[in-house]
Amino acid sequence: MSTSMSKVAAIGVAALAASLATAPSALAATPAAATPTAVSTTVVSMRVLSTVSSLNVRSGPGAGYTRVGALTKGSFVLGVLNGGWLKISSGPYAGRYTSASYLTLVKPAAAAAVGSTVTGWIALTGGIPARVHTAPGFAYNVGRTLAAGTTVSGKVVDANWIRLNGTGGYVNRGTIETLSANVASVNGNLPAWALCPINTAYNSPQPFDPGYTVTTPRYLNCNAVTALNALQTAYLAKFGHYANIDLAYRTYSEQQYWYKTLGPKYANSPGTSNHGVGLAVDFQEWEGHTTEFDWGGAGSNWLRANGGKYGFTQPYAYGTDGESYHFNFTG
């Protein structure tokens, strides 16, 4: 994201407004009041059945409405269920409808028990690799890395670490995605239960467009939040205040906004951002002002030197056009 542009607030998926349906009989001499039927406003995570090659997306809740696109089999979609149709609430088809008959509800995954096997893929994107440690902890040496998208399998050591089968080594659980092998289907469309809130005490104090405030929630991968809390404790001890955060997880629709606003030089194509998998943080950037997270700033220097101790690494060379305030959770 360009340092000359303000940021958008787009975390999570807003609940849709409730409405009531009333239909008193026109034939009744003295119509009795119809019983209002509450319409759901609960956003749920759904997945297109694997037996469906593609699923039509329509302009309204019915087969008679215009087809405006399609979802591929196995893809994830967020929305509100009513009357056999899902009103999509995020991504390129937000506000459109698809039939619920060909969707299945994605339920929260149970935490993997210690000793059980986890199989998935490295969720980082854009050529950013995950770090493999010689023992289960950030303090241990990084022996090698695993490329984004690599399929991995290993045994659960604890809530945060996986011991890789075969080649050995340890990766942080947060860098492994198990929902789908199709990164495009989850990037920016993660279910709410797959994310954890960031402590609002870390939020940047200044508001920025459109309507982002100090109280606006931010979210990250849950393992990344655990690591971020440890990083913030150390930062507070060093500087007397937390490292202010602008943005973290970004929905697909927010990624569309940035790509349209900034173009490919400063924004990833929608569905390819590390923000979209909850594994990236932008610390404070303040248009027209100098911050501690600019190149050479005390905060940026400290994070570059110490972020890896908590799993956060800087992908850009010092002083380049890259974002001085952007860090990925690479484990």
TrEMBL record:
Q: Name one GO molecular function term.
A: carboxypeptidase activity
Q: Can you tell me where the transmembrane regions are? A: none
Against InterPro entries, the record matches this protein to:
VanY-like_core_dom, Zn_M74/Hedgehog-like
Annotated signal peptide? 1-28
Q: Which UniProt keywords apply?
A: Carboxypeptidase, Hydrolase, Protease, Signal
Q: Which residues form the D-alanyl-D-alanine carboxypeptidase-like core domain?
A: 219-330
Kindly list the biological process annotations in GO that this record carries.
proteolysis
The entry's protein name is: D-alanyl-D-alanine carboxypeptidase
